[in-house]
Amino acid sequence: MENLVLIFISCVLLAGPGAADRLVTIQAGPLVRTEGSHATIWCNVTGYRGAVVQDFEWSLYLASAPEREIRVVSTRHGDYSYAAYSSRVAAGDIYVERLSADAVVLHISRLQARDQGLFECYTPNTDGEYRGSYNAKTNLTVIPDTLSVTSTAQTLNKVEGDSLQLTCDVSRQTQQHTHLSVGWYLRSEAGAPPQDLLTLSRDFVLRAGGPYKQRFASGDLRLDKTGSTAYKLTVHRLQPADQGLLYCEAAEWIQDPDRSWYAMTRKQSEKTVLKIQPAEKDFSIQVSTERRAYTAGEPLELRCSIDAQNVQERYFSVSWVFSSSQVAVVGPNAVPVLVGDYVQREATGQLTVRKESPSVYLLKLQSLRPEDTGKYTCRVTERERTLTGDFIDRSKRSRNVQITVQPLRSNMTVSLSSNSTEVEEGRTIQLTCEAHSVLDKATGLSVTWRWADGKGGAKQDLAALDGEGVAKPGPTYSERAAYGEIRVERIGPSAFLLAVHNSVPGDEGQYECAVSEWVQGTNRSWEKMGEKSATKSMSVKAVESSFSVSASSRKPSVTYGDSFDLQCIVKPRHNPRVPAAVTWRFKSSEGAGDAPFQDLVTFSHDGTLQWSKASLGMGARTTVDRTGNVSNFRLSISRAGPGESGTYRCLAQLWRRTYNRTWAKVAERTSNPLGINVVKPAPKLRLHQSNQSVVLVEDGRVQINCSILAQTSAESQHTVLWFARRGAPDEAGGPSEGGEAQAELLLKINHNSAFEYGAYAEEERLQSRVQAERLSAQLHRLTLHRAEAADSGTYFCLVEEWLPDPSGAWYLLAREASGFTRVVVKQPEVRLQVEETESNVTVQESSSFRLGCSIPSQSSRESRFSVSWYVARAGRDGAEDCVFSIGHDAVFGNGNCSPSEAPGPDSRLRFERTTSDLYSLTVQQARSGDEGNYSCLVEEWLLNPRKAWYRLAASRSGVTVVAVLPQVSTLMSVVCSNESLFYFVFFYPFPIFGLLLIAVLLVRYKARGSSKSQEGKNGAPLLWIKEPHLNYSPTCLDPPTLGLHPGSVE
């Protein structure tokens, strides 16, 4: 335990009183202890703030579950322990001993194997903020107790002078490196402490007990190791004092990491009873006293000592003789029998005769008289019973002791001392007057206290104390004495005290103590033996001369939400008779420069606390206290805000309490001004600022993240502003010159979750397509749906960090911009391809030819096409004429050119779209003017996210060269060129020929003129073709089908 205390004191000294951060220190491990032993672990904390008394919580972490905490015991909570330890804590087997306010020792009685593990010492936070370490850990290893100490139990009878040998076997099976200490001990009597005979320490050093050092040095006492586990004790020339119980005790020691040795376990062997028969029965007598010359009234003590063996088992009678006259007899039963006049003196308490111990007898005369001068003798008689049953008396007389008693003479001297030659005003003047060389303690002493101003003035009686202890104040000081400011008392047999409380400068001067010595005569009357006096000068220091006040603070500048302390130190130190009243005053930095200070709180001189109206705004955030000596007044303000920024000072007043219990102000001082600046916390806001690029196709979705990497406080709230810069970004991916100034606000989410669009979103009509999300407290996302090429630009977020001040108002602390996101929205990739194969077509005049336009590849499945056919005729210098055009909206003539021949019933053109990628144009009744180089121009159109059509690409097909041959008119060509005529000529004539002939004849017969008008030039019936018609629906989503259908023959 002494080692623990030394280690603890060393840790405290090393830590020092000026440690800035909290530091918890625990006994270094690993600590190895045995099962069933008593284990201790110390722990202390330094550098703390707040509470003076620190609490400690002990926990255990087992190796099988190193992350699981098992609570053991705490100084703060009685129900802290888990079930595994609650019963042992309640039984007192586990407890915490507090060494000081910040140091404890954990005690574990009867250590168990399950106690092995990592012990943690934790101190709850009392600092107002987390600084330093709050816990420390050490490892405790519990090993089996394998120490074995054995010695044969026996009873030995020896004779004085014989030799003795005893063997003790000591063994252990510990795997750790340990040392053994082995010792032999003797217990002479039951209940008596054991005596150390001889010990082999853990350092292999032999040490003998105090009474046996001489015998060990002479070789009569030995301890030898005769085997690996055997230790033999040898005692030569036994003495009667060696009789008793002998046993062997061994301890197993281990060295802790701090280099100190610890006794893990200690065991004793069986005891051997040793009896020693004395070699002889003679005895000797000696009378002793302090001195032989006394003064009347002093006490006399005479002791008769018997030196013999086994005194307790022998019977002695002692007689006291004075000048051949017997005074008293004390028999073996220890009952005194007095003789003559001594009976009366014993009855009045003036004489005492008793047996102090088995071998010491006392004769005491309380108050010597001159007639007690003479020779004193002690006579001792031993009665012994022989083997025959008879008694034999052996007597011896001591030498005469001459006692001389002198009559009383006063040799008294007086000394006067004080607590200090100079005291502060209001404190107590304390003088001690002590008389020396007084004749007897029972002699009466009286004292008189006097005072003089030290300037030649007359002495004045302060107070007097007679021999019976009755105090009487002097006439000048009777009123102050009545109020208890003048006090005299006897603090010892020959010592007296004068105390002048609540001293004032007028109490300065010379003080005198006069002591009179009185002796009671035979008639019980008191006689004055003499008087002696002593003087001493005292000075009283006025409080105004040393009264000062100063204000200080360790934190002239604090952060919002932090705490700060202001110290008002009043000198001199606190005097309860002249207490100080302290008022803290404050002037806000937000007020005018000539604004007066306002009182916050006052410590009055009578110990009350008074709060002013100006402190109500601070509420429960302000605490005040003072130190034990009440000379240091502290004002503590927690969770400081801008309202606490300003100038502080303290006003101190000294008050003196007069003897009639009224108060009077003595002095007043004002401290230095103390400026406290409450500033915003240093911003720690940090955003992800790497630039990135996003490239996508129109109608896609853009997601931009705004990641907050660090913030100042867990209470921080963020306002997120999303900005966009029009136009294509520069090559670096960020905005060009102008930066943020050219960016426009897209939307804003305030720290209170309010949402609003910026001018950019309204101008670009993005409200329906833009979305802002808060995925987590540190991650915000901007999503732009159905992106279009106009959305290309640079985007970034601007985060504002807001914090609440102690009053609950939010303030802007920091602003930080993220990295830039370069967004490029592209139109779909152009994959338009038109068949470019060139061909030659030769047709006869009046026949038809077909022009195809095939689109093997397109950019999008949603594409629409505008198709136009052009012809380049010979002799036009490359100029092209528009033949036919159909727009992407399926409207004829709404393409990229205006055809020279308008569509209609009379048009020779027939347009067809057989599949989505195959268009054809048929030119009927070819003419010579239709010759030329034909090609089709295809334009690809797409619908943008705003539902507006735009041209994506254009491509031209290969050239088709058309040649028209002139027509030779024959009957066969006429018939074959007309399908209806062909059928009419070759199929229909046979069944109707007869009827037709009859009809023609009848018609010619009845109306020759009419039939002539219906005949052609060649006399044959005229066949004609109806005009072509066009089926067209302007609302159809597919391109219209232009069909030129043959007419019917009438």
TrEMBL record:
Its main location: membrane. SMART domains: IG, IGc2, IGv. Residues 17-141, 144-274, 278-388, 407-539, 545-667, 683-800, 828-939 form the Ig-like domain. CDD domains: IgV. InterPro entries: Ig-like_dom, Ig-like_dom_sf, Ig-like_fold, Ig_sub, Ig_sub2, Ig_V-set, IgSF_V-set/TM_domain. The keyword NADP does not apply. It is found in: Membrane. It is a single-pass type I membrane protein. Residues 1-20 form the signal peptide. It holds the Pfam family V-set. The chain crosses the membrane at residues 981-1003. The keyword Membrane applies. Keywords: Disulfide bond, Immunoglobulin domain, Membrane, Repeat, Signal, Transmembrane, Transmembrane helix. One of its GO terms (cellular component) is membrane. This is Immunoglobulin superfamily member 3. It comes from Scleropages formosus.
